[in-house]
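Internal tracking record. Fields below are filled automatically when a chain is submitted to the structure queue. Please do not edit lines marked as system-generated. If the sequence contains nonstandard residues, flag them in the REMARKS field before resubmitting.
Queue: standard
Priority: normal
Entity type: single polypeptide chain
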Amino acid sequence: MNWEKITSVEDLKSIDKNSENQEVMIFKHSTTCSISATVLARMERKWNAEKANKIIPYYLDLLSFREISNRIAQHYGIRHESPQVLIIKNGKCIYDASHYDISFDEVIAIASSHAF
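SYSTEM-GENERATED OUTPUT FOLLOWS
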């Protein structure tokens, strides 16, 4: 799985721009949380490039970039959670899930139902 790393607030502009042509997934990860580690590992194990070929995966280390995590919540109008997955389309969050509700199959189903 090839993550695009979010390291600056400016990356949100790129995410919004990229989401005009295909879905973007943001995975907000807490590097000290065992639940987050479990969910991340599960997502990476299940990631199937063929099924997910229309989704650009972004990764945020929210402990290193807490300000960006807060900006994501504000920018997309969602409540901050950790771990958390957001699906962005046309600059809007069309789906978010947290903790053990995060699932590769659900991400694919949401992306497929909102296909361009």
